[in-house]
Amino acid sequence: MTAAPPGSRRRGRFAPSPTGPLHFGSLVAAVGSFADARAAGGEWLVRMEDLDRPRTVPGAADDILRGLDAFGLHWDASVWYQTGRTEAYVTALERLSAAGLVYACGCTRREIQLGGRPGPEGPIYPGTCRRGLPAGRAPRSLRLRADGSEIGFVDRVHGPQQQDVARAVGDFVLRRADGFYAYQLAVVVDDAAQGITDVVRGADLLLSTPRQIRLQRHLGLPQPTYAHLPLALDASGRKLSKSLAALPVERSDPLPALLAAWRFLGQCPPPEPPGDVAAFWAWAVHAWDVTRIPSCITHPAVEAAER
Asked: Which of 78, 86, 125 is nearest to 106 (CA)?
């Protein structure tokens, strides 16, 4: 694994899951991460998080890339695909296993739901297989022992964060029962390998960040800065999806959605309407202000579109 050396150029990234075309919620994350990297004079990369193959839609990755290009979100290196990164995840898992941090788990989701106490992201794993698989049980997943001190970090939007991973989540999965590597492991390995210095993404991943920092420390990897953007909600208060007709992400006329995403992120509007996407970004990279991003987990997208 290679990482950017200390003091090197700032580098951000956008890492969508190719489960459908680019929608407004994804556009917000792309705009925020792109503007943040460019405002710092840094690079911006794109990585397709396509590990969850049953959910991956054929052709969606290419469609997302065409959408990014139409919105002036141009990346600085070849696009990475997690399905081609298995060897790196195997190596990381072997290192964790050699340190005695990983164990096999034979529990089903149903069993964890029945035996785990409620947590902020669902049932907390009760540690059933921590001391070895119960008699007659076959291994299904691999888990990381979550013991250790509390993890603290400062989010650039939400401020100081603190979490006891063992109490809030419990021992968490690194390789799933279906054989695919878990998001938490893959994102840590890939961010380090791509030299990502600044992670700007949706607030649905704020509670995942301490797990990722735990893995970074175990693997001796650098810790990037984090900024978590509010999640776009539709008029009914549901997390925005690509099917929301009120906010289409239209490639043939990109400025309206681009400006709506900019407003959604709390940024000052351009002094005059930009003539095209290139004119918008020529102004926007100098106007970006991370301190103006709403410090909330969710935010109505419709309001941004109507202003």
From this structure: 125
